[in-house]
Amino acid sequence: MVMPMTDSVRAWRVLFEDLCRLIRSGRLVPGDRLPSETALIAQTGLSRTTVRQAIGQLRSVGLVSTLAPKGTFVLGTPDPVRLMAGESVTAEAALTLTRADGSTALLPAGTPIVCAATR
User: Fold this and answer.
1) What is the 3-state secondary structure (H, E, C) of 23-90?
2) How far, in Å, CA of 29 to CA of 49, rounded?
3) CB–CB of 61/16 below 8 Å?
4) How many alpha carbons fall within 13 Å on the CB side of residue 58?
């Protein structure tokens, strides 16, 4: 991963998306440790702040968890959620699923949503 960039917003986003692809493709599996910040800085040429932004975004969408001082570990991708007629999802840092009966469920951001066929 070599990506020297001057636009820090674009840079953290590119690193975030690269790491997401590694997780979603199965090259990084639940329990795997991400490279350290120092290793990512050396591999990418990005600043510590930029690397931390990318890892923070991975945490906010529920793909990794950081356990100080052990490192950042892959949590995996959540199973798809099937929506039925009358249900909706609101996206924030997490997803709020509102079921047809009015009940709600909080899901990690990035949870795949599958709409059920209506008959």
Assistant:
1) HHCCCCCCCCECCCHHHHHHHHCCCHHHHHHHHHHHHHCCCEEEECCCEEEECCCCCCEEECCCCEEE
2) 25
3) no
4) 29
pLDDT of 9 higher than 50 = yes
Express each pLDDT in 66-108 by its tens digit. Answer: 888 889 999 866 667 787 887 776 655 566 777 788 887 777 7
* Range 66-71, long-range pairs (CB < 8 A, 24+ positions): 70/33, 71/33, 71/34, 71/36
Q: What is the DSSP letter of 118?
A: P
pLDDT > 70 fraction of the chain, expressed in percent and rounded: 77
Domains of the chain: 8-74 (1.10.10.10), 81-115 (no CATH)
